[in-house]
Predict the structure.
Amino acid sequence: MPTTSLLTPYSLGHLRLPNRLVMAPMTRFRAAEDGTPLPVVADYYAQRASAGLIVTEGIWPSRAGQSGWRMPGLETMEHIIGWRGVTKAVHASGGRIFAQLMHGGRQGHPLSRLTGDIPAGPSSVPVPGPVHVRDGGKADSVTPRAMTREDIHQAVRDHVSAARNAIEAGFDGVELHGANSYLIHQFLADNTNLRDDEYGRRTTEDRIRFPVEVVKAVADAIGAGRTGLRLSPGNPQFGMEEAAPGPVYRNLVRALDGLGLAYLHLTDNDAYPALTDLRAHWHGVLIANVGENREPTSRADGEAVLLTGRADLVSYGRACIANPDLPHRFERDSALNAINGDHLYTHGAIGYTDYPPLGIPAGSQERIESV
Ligand SMILES: Cc1cc2nc3c(=O)[nH]c(=O)nc-3n(C[C@H](O)[C@H](O)[C@H](O)COP(=O)(O)O)c2cc1C
């Protein structure tokens, strides 16, 4: 039987991936209050080292970008030391790992931020509805402060500094989070960027200015080959509105094509078929995520994307949470574990590192105590 495309190796720059399956970034709230990843985070990612590439959960580059309590950071020496334990464990298990840098922008609440202040975004437009805050609570969202030019320049510097910290912590590269309603996405979307300056809504060039500046600055600092970008054009998550994503994202992708970035990670959705529309404008490596706001990505979904040439690699989110050995399961056509939805966002090992690998029945694994 010929091997399927998902299970064939791929060269991503100097990294040799044993398969084309990428673990998608997923927030899990397993950090200490200061943003240092807990020891159990190293176990979690090491268990998943058979993925071609792991992209971590979103990590705030600076406290100004913190969008949730007990999300991890990459700002301090404690953070670097904590993440070094993670990258060492993943590399020792034969894996490869990028850090996702996620600046929350308007996302966030004083009750969920170490600074305790109101977050800032491109414009003073709040997230609709109540938001999750620390310790499982909910609160009305706050109206963010509109970023000054100096805030914008500082956000670029913060991404650069966090990217350098990521390399110091042993990551193979960083993925800049330009998707799913966070800061970079807020500059791109219609309703969150009402600015009239050179970072604003007047022209497409203005709208993409901040995203392009961040990507270029990080690529200059750590190398384009170690810098990836994630985009989710048209994703309405957390009240994002993009009436016509095509022109904005085509321009953005064209502006970045040719920089030699490690990859573009595109999430497709029902509102806008990003993979089909943008492929022609991007000549570098493309990672597809086809599950956003849909059923969890299946093996068949991934194979179809590869077969039709819409991407080089496919990222899997929920299936990787529940199946630490997903490539092996695909290889053997084995059943998948069900996801434990009750513990996605709790802080310990339960529902995190206790999913059994193939051949080990649930419950017989040594439990790593909750931390
Ligand atoms: C628990 C959870 C947390 C997530 N956190 C992030 C995140 O931090 N950064 C990000 O870019 N996407 C995040 N996502 C989106 C996933 O990366 C992925 O796009 C989504 O799960 C769809 O893929 P799937 O169908 O394979 O699960 C998250 C998804 C889940 C289920």
